[in-house]
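Progress note, sequence design subtask.
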């Protein structure tokens, strides 16, 4: 009798399905909402350059490692790490790496859902013609009134959370594949439409200059750039690992990782090119913070021909992009509950959904009733609200730390025979990957950590 392990989870129907789902996870609010505003806050050019280096030298090798571990372990990240450690004859404590990922995903989703709720609200706001002919001041005050109202934010956060958990409860494959096949290319096209509008503002060059001209940078900004490379590629917390666990053996992980990283980076750069010209054309501040796209894009939609339709489509697609990412943020936790507690996917999704929703309230209040409740951690941050703190700790600390240990596991703990077997190659590309994952990625993450706290 075959002794093959029974598969609790589904498998992707094809390699393309996996690439699409992983791209769906990677492309999200991180590219269109977060990348422009943190670039604006951290001075532009140099920040972008460091982010790009991190994607190439740390992100891609760790993505390969994560998919590889997932496909070999075939379970939720917690159980995958436990199983692989056992298989390699190593300490069982590696499973805590999986745990850290589950917690990071849960915390990220709690605020991700709030911001995705903003995008959802902006579909209707744009559709109502609210922004037709609007001025920068008008758009700004509409945004401030909106985030100042906890009840409104609560409504949209709840709606987005329900949308997410419904898909998770049904299993990630159903729905996700179709969503990504059609909607991602459409999002890309609409982004191009806004870039074309940005070209007509007369400030396109200034936008490019801001994005690509190097300037001064701080240790903290370097940490944020690296954290963002992890965040935007969905790395360091097991999301890509769990998607890798649904992948069958006959596919090239290296190729897939490069395609996913390129697509993700392109979307982020296009978002920057769409937004910064509008920022400068309207005398706005690039460092305006998390509201940046909601304070700039409506101006563009209010003035371009057919802007209402383009705006509605754009925010709708942004919601879809966020949706496909949100699903992957909670999948590691749900997969674990199904495996270890024997819960149904529906029950596991409801429990996780309610918990995440509750933590999300803290983010909602950060923009209104708790606006002035801030704290500081020496060397790390000053006067951060609940939302900023959560974002900082997850994206800049937990994800890179998770990534560091994934790199160490794949490069040092796992035997060479296992990784070359799983990647199905021993050629130059394997050697390059192994070098990056053993030396370059871990050393880079450690140096950036030390630099951020001013130790080097
Ligand atoms: N990569 C997503 C984005 O850029 O919006 C966010 C994300 C999804 C981060 C999944 C981490 C993750 F595991």
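Output:
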């Amino acid at each position: 009798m075959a002794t093959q392990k029974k598969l609790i989870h589904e498998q992707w129907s094809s390699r393309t399905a996996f690439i699409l789902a992983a791209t769906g996870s990677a492309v999200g609010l991180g590219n269109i909402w977060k990348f422009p505003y943190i670039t604006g806050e951290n001075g532009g050019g140099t920040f972008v350059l460091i982010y790009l280096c991190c994607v190439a030298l740390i992100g891609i090798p760790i993505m390969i490692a994560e998919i590889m571990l997932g496909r070999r372990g075939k379970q939720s990240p917690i159980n995958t790490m436990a199983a692989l450690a056992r298989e390699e004859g190593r300490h069982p404590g590696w499973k805590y790496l999986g745990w850290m990922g589950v917690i990071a995903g849960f915390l990220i989703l709690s605020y991700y859902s709030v911001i995705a709720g903003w995008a959802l609200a902006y579909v209707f706001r744009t559709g109502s013609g609210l922004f037709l002919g609007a001025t920068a001041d008008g758009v700004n005050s509409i945004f401030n009134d909106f985030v100042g109202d906890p009840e409104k934010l609560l409504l949209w956060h709840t709606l987005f959370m329900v949308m997410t958990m419904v898909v998770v409860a049904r299993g990630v494959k159903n729905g996700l594949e179709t969503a990504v096949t059609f909607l991602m290319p459409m999002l890309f096209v609409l982004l191009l439409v806004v870039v074309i509008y940005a070209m007509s503002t007369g400030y396109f060059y200034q936008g490019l200059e801001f994005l690509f001209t190097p300037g001064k940078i701080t240790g903290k900004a370097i940490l944020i750039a690296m954290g963002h490379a992890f965040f935007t590629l969905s790395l360091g917390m097991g999301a890509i690992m769990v998607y890798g666990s649904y992948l069958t053996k006959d596919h090239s992980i290296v190729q897939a990782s490069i395609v996913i990283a390129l697509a993700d980076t392109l979307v982020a750069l296009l978002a920057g090119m769409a937004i910064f010209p509008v920022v400068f054309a309207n005398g706005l501040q690039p460092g305006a913070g998390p509201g940046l796209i909601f304070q700039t894009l409506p101006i563009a939609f209010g003035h371009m021909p057919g802007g209402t339709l383009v705006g509605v489509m754009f925010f709708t697609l942004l919601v879809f992009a966020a949706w496909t990412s949100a699903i992957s943020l909670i999948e590691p936790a749900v997969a674990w509950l199904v495996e270890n507690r024997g819960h149904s996917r529906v029950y596991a999704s409801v429990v996780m959904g309610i918990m995440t929703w509750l933590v999300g309230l803290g983010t909602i209040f950060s923009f209104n009733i708790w606006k002035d409740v801030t704290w500081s951690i020496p060397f790390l941050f000053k006067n951060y609200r609940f939302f900023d703190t959560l974002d900082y700790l997850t994206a800049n600390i937990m994800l890179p730390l998770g990534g560091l240990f994934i790199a160490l596991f794949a490069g040092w703990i796992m035997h060479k025979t296992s990784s070359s077997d799983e990647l199905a190659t021993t050629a130059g590309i394997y050697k390059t990957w192994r070098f990056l994952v053993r030396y370059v990625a871990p050393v880079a993450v450690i140096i950036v950590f030390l630099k951020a706290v001013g130790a080097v």
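Residues 15-452 form a domain with the Hydantoin permease fold (CATH 1.10.4160). Work on this subtask will continue into the next period as scheduled.
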